[in-house]
Amino acid sequence: MYRRIIPDMFTTSNLVFGMCSILATFNGDYFWGSIFIMIALCADGLDGRTARFFGVAGEMGKEMDSLCDLVSFGVAPGFLVFSFCLKDYGILGWVAVIFFAACGMWRLARFNVNAATLHGYFMGLAIPAGGNILATSTLLFLLTGFNPRALGIAYPIIVMIVAYLMVSHVHYPDFKGAGEKIYVGSKVFAVVLFVFILYYGRDAIGAAVLFGLFATYALFGIFNYALALFSRR
Questions:
Q1: Residue 87: CB partners within 8 Å, gap ≥ 6?
Q2: Exposed e or buried b for every residue in 189-223, given b needs 16+ CB within 10 A?
């Protein structure tokens, strides 16, 4: 019995931390609103691993995981960035966060349908990565004192681009073995981009590292996929 309880506890923790993020954001605590989303990511990473370790992985767990992911990495990050900044953009801010949540839902549904046929890569940016791009960028803005409103209309557009990446057909390597080819040029691009982010976020290096990991992965996937398409021609 305990073998099923342990993975389910991690899955439930994912949802709990997503709700904690929403409640913290509602109370104006954007620091913990961001942190709870990252903690939810840890819980999300452990539920599947423990389920496979105990040999209890099944359809019920997959459905629970998807429902929790939508809250923790679709709704909570959208509410976080809306409350933090996007509320000042009027209808555009509404559109950006609703679009983000809707794309997250679409991404999860497509992943569940294609899980048995796609191996070696993810089609589109995984929703935990997308949600944590918003969470870690908010944390970085807070700790460095940067006001994202200085980006103007580019900020909500960036949020919508991240949302679109989740439902795109860009192939993101899953780093679990044989699968999507990773090009040397992509590795160089990723290193340069990561160092660039660390340099400009050096006043809050911890947050910069976290944001750098997710942002670099998102852009690395685009770059690597573009090279793959070019090499086939």
A1: 93
A2: bbeebbeebeeebeebeebbebbbbbbbbbbbbbb
Confidence band (pLDDT; 50, 70, 90) for 57? low
Dist. CA 83–CA 45, nearest whole Å: 27
Average model confidence (pLDDT) across the chain: 90
Cβ neighbors of 173 (< 8 A, separation 6 or more) are 120, 121, 122, 179, 180, 182, 221, 224
Q: Confidence band (pLDDT; 50, 70, 90) for 179?
A: low
Question: Rounded to a whole number, what is the distance in angstroms from the first to the last CA of the chain?
Answer: 54
Give the count of beta carbons closer than 10 Å to the beta carbon of residue 41: 21
**Are 106 and 126 in contact, with CB atoms under 8 Å apart?**
no
- Which carries the bigger pLDDT value, residue 71 or residue 53? 71
Q: Which two tokens stand for residue 71?
A: 């809250």
Q: Is 107 exposed, middle or buried (0-12, 13-18, 19+ CB in 10 A)?
A: buried
Query: Of 224, 218, 219, nearest to 125 (Cα)?
Result: 218
In the predicted model, is pLDDT for residue 127 greater than 90?
yes
Q: Which of 83, 73, 192, 89 is nearest to 131 (CA)?
A: 73
SS3 label, residue 61? helix
* Calpha distance 229→183 (Å, rounded): 12
